[in-house]
């Protein structure tokens, strides 16, 4: 670790770096709902059934809370002191409270009228409390719960926070789990640790999680080291990666290489000619470079503009990320002065892409990567069996799979292949709690739905022969009762060498 | 902060957590750790040197509940693993940043115990051939850890995110300072085995002005991979089925442990200066 990694060029320190700036990638937060957007003046943003402009957040610190006022403007909201000490009139239990639906004297129309008048959410909640016949009979706990519920509905408080792996992974899991193969955030956290992701590493990643895993790795590595992303189809999808708002300097260590050329690379038949640009590539250049341009990825799910659909439960409607209209770097196609310029620009980019691919191929061919991360919708076994060859011995690898079964097979195949130790198939369960005086209890237990991990370490193949008692392919299952004897045998070998 | 999982692998009072954090924040971050037990603090210092990570960590010997962390307004994150975290909440607030300056992650830890189940592997150097196997649970010891970015203006004016839990970069991302760095929000995390401790800590956090309180528990489950073949029952028809007296074998991932134990609760909070 000492002195490891390349250093991005020294930058002057900017005071006030905690302030929101025009063009920043931020995340809007309301209660536990998140949405990633880019700050752009005069651009309408919808979030949680409200629309507004982000102009007013510019200059404020991250973490500032705003209220949506009439006309779609955001006003900073001061942290109110909770009036906790007031003794409220409250009942002891609910035996006399009848739920007839008539305890609230304000009608829907009344409330709407209040809203239209521009009355603040706080005020509306107050009105509701005053007009509730049963409020003072409720127990204190019930009153708290009631107030919380009304506040949630009528107080439109939005916080602007800086994107981070934590926030984005929570957001994606809640809103678009399909895009990330249902990888829950704690599972992602495990991956980063088991994979020993850190500055200075040379990592190989193959993911189809919208670039979330890639982003998490980049964040951890901080621009130090390098990452080679292998991608299926025409180009890597990096919608989530863009949400992080990484500086451009991070891109210098980021490479990509087409998955369908991996075999040739491993067999030594790869050559530069194989990288002639396919028609699909040009359409995906912007995506490759991490912008949120709306482009149809040929084999990927539709990553384009996801607007927020209020109460809709359709995954394809729900949108997590606001479209970024344009990445400053790629104004070419939109501003074409002439068709010729456009074509030249396109060719230039294709040439650059080709160069990058060649550089990536060279890096891969060294077969000395510091780790491998796989998290995709594809069956993990063939990926592992091939990609591990690019990894140096004594390095970690982690494979994520939404399902356990493919990892069972992967485990077995890896045992046959040899060159790996400390194989571990795991899962994490996540349980959250409500902690309140006299009211503490667990809320939800999330298990089984967060995916599984197979991790291990590579070792030099010479010292450890593949376990010859394991026959390959289909016969594996028939030839054994259990795997235990094989593992023990391996351990003996290890201690001898 | 997120999903802790990685938090803690036990280990020794020297702090697997410390090592994990150092691994994460190097080369531009810094860790401050507080240990009130003289001997353990010394041992920790030795180990950091031995593992060649000494320059990213400072070990202080003091009682964090009484005297705090020894740094103020510099930390991006604080982690506590001590018996009475509510007593350290105020100090944690003071230690956390108000403005973004060199990134700091402050992590305070006390006993280790809980970490046990989280199997973290630390590889201090790529040159090491042997990976560290997940350490075994050890008795409690007190280690408090913190991390702080480079105080001086060196060529690497960077900040380092401190993903204490592997997910949260914590305010202060990376190198490029042209990028507004991770905001002002400092993150707090406390690990406690007992719910009563959690309750008191939450109360103290709320009273002190922390927001986004969240308590959770991460339970790892490890599976054995087994090939299993179940015998077919004899229903009287006499002849064996096509597969013989047993069914075709199948692969199964069976839990390694019958029951998943509890180690502790993780309580997170954010400091957003009002």
UniProtKB/TrEMBL annotation, chain A:
It is found in: Nucleus. Keywords: Nucleus, tRNA processing. The keyword tRNA processing applies. It comes from the Eukaryota. The keyword tRNA-binding does not apply. Residues 1-20, 69-103, 292-354, 475-497 are annotated as: Disordered. InterPro entries: TRM6 (IPR017423). Pfam families: Gcd10p (PF04189). Residues 79-103, 327-354, 478-497 have a biased composition (Basic and acidic residues). Substrate-binding subunit of tRNA (adenine-N1-)-methyltransferase, which catalyzes the formation of N1-methyladenine at position 58 (m1A58) in initiator methionyl-tRNA. Belongs to the TRM6/GCD10 family. Heterotetramer. PANTHER family: TRANSLATION INITIATION FACTOR EIF3-RELATED (PTHR12945), TRNA (ADENINE(58)-N(1))-METHYLTRANSFERASE NON-CATALYTIC SUBUNIT TRM6 (PTHR12945:SF0). This is tRNA (adenine(58)-N(1))-methyltransferase non-catalytic subunit TRM6. It comes from Saguinus oedipus. The lineage of its organism: Eukaryota, Metazoa, Chordata, Craniata, Vertebrata. The gene is TRMT6.
UniProtKB/TrEMBL annotation, chain B:
Signal peptide: none annotated. It is found in: Nucleus. It catalyses: an adenosine in mRNA + S-adenosyl-L-methionine = an N(1)-methyladenosine in mRNA + S-adenosyl-L-homocysteine + H(+). Its EC number is 2.1.1.220. Keywords: Methyltransferase, Nucleus, S-adenosyl-L-methionine, Transferase, tRNA processing. SUPFAM superfamilies: S-adenosyl-L-methionine-dependent methyltransferases (SSF53335). InterPro entries: SAM-dependent_MTases_sf, TRM61_C, tRNA_MeTrfase_Gcd14. It is an enzyme of class 2 (transferase). Pfam families: GCD14 (PF08704). This is tRNA (adenine(58)-N(1))-methyltransferase. It comes from Saguinus oedipus (Cotton-top tamarin).
């Amino acid at each position: 670790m000492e002195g490891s990694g390349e250093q991005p060029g020294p930058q002057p320190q900017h005071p006030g770096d905690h302030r929101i700036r025009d063009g920043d990638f931020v995340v809007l937060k309301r209660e536990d709902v998140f949405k990633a957007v880019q700050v752009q003046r005069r651009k309408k943003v919808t979030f949680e059934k409200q629309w507004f402009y982000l102009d007013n957040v510019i200059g404020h610190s991250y973490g500032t809370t705003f209220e949506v006022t009439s006309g779609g403007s955001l006003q900073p909201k001061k942290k109110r002191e909770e009036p906790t000490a007031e003794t409220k009139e409250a009942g002891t239990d609910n035996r006399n409270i009848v739920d007839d639906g008539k305890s609230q004297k304000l009608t829907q129309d009344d409330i709407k009228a209040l809203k239209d008048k521009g009355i603040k959410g706080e005020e509306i909640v107050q009105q509701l409390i005053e007009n509730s016949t049963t409020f003072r009979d409720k127990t204190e706990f019930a009153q708290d719960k009631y107030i919380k519920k009304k506040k949630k509905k009528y107080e439109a408080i939005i916080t602007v926070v800086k994107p981070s792996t934590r926030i984005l992974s929570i957001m994606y899991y809640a809103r678009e789990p399909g895009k990330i193969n249902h990888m829950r955030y704690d599972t992602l956290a495990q991956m980063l640790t088991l994979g020993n992701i850190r500055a200075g590493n040379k990592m190989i990643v193959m993911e189809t999680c919208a670039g979330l895993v890639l982003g998490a790795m980049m964040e951890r590595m901080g621009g130090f080291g390098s990452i080679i992303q292998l991608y299926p189809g025409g180009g890597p999808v990096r919608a989530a990666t863009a949400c992080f708002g990484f500086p451009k300097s991070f891109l210098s260590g980021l490479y990509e290489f087409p998955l369908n050329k991996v075999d040739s690379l491993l067999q030594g038949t790869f050559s530069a000619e194989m990288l002639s640009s396919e028609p699909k590539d040009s359409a995906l250049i912007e995506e490759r470079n991490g912008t949120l341009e709306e482009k149809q990825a040929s084999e990927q799910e539709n990553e384009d503009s996801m607007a927020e659909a209020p109460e809709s439960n359709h995954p394809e409607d729900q949108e997590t990320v606001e479209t970024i209209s344009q990445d400053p770097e790629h104004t070419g196609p939109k501003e074409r002065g002439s068709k010729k310029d456009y074509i030249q620009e396109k060719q230039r980019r294709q040439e650059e892409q080709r160069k990058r691919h060649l550089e990536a191929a060279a890096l891969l061919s060294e077969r000395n990567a510091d780790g491998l991360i796989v998290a995709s919708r594809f069956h993990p076994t063939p990926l592992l069996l091939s990609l591990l060859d690019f990894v140096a011995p004594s390095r970690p690898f982690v494979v994520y799979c939404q399902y356990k079964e493919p990892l069972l097979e992967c485990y077995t195949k890896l045992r046959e292949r040899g060159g790996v130790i400390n194989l571990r198939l795991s899962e994490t369960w996540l349980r959250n709690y409500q902690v309140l005086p006299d009211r503490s209890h667990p809320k939800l237990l999330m298990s089984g739905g967060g995916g599984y991990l197979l991790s291990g370490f590579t070792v030099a193949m010479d010292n450890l022969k593949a376990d010859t008692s394991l026959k390959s392919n289909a016969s594996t299952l028939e030839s054994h009762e259990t795997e235990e004897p094989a593992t023990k045998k391996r351990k003996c070998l290890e201690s001898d060498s | 902060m997120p999903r802790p999982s990685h938090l803690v692998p036990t280990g020794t009072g020297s702090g697997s957590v410390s090592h994990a954090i150092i691994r994460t924040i190097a080369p531009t971050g810094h860790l401050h750790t507080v240990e009130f037990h003289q001997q353990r603090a010394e041992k920790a210092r030795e180990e950091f040197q031995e593992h060649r990570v000494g320059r990213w960590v400072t070990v202080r010997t003091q009682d964090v509940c009484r005297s705090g962390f020894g740094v103020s307004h510099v930390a991006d994150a604080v982690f506590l693993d001590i018996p009475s975290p509510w007593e350290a909440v105020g100090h944690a607030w003071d230690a956390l940043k108000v403005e973004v300056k060199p990134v700091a992650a402050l992590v305070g830890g006390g006993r280790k115990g809980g970490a046990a189940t989280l199997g973290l592997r630390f590889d201090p150097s790529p040159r090491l051939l042997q990976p560290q196997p997940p350490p075994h649970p050890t008795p409690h010891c007190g280690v408090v850890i913190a991390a702080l970015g480079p105080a001086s203006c060196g060529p690497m004016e960077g900040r380092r995110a401190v993903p204490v839990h592997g997910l949260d970069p914590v305010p202060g991302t990376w190198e490029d300072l042209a990028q507004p760095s991770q905001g002002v929000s400092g993150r707090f995390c406390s690990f406690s085995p007992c719910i009563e401790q959690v309750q008191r800590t939450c109360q103290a956090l709320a009273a002190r002005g922390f927001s986004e309180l969240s308590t959770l528990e991460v339970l790892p489950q490890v599976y054995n991979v087994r090939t299993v073949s179940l015998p077919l029952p004899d229903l009287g028809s006499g002849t064996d089925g096509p597969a013989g007296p047993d069914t075709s074998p199948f692969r199964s991932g069976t839990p390694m442990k019958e029951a998943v134990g509890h180690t502790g609760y993780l309580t997170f909070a954010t400091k957003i200066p009002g």
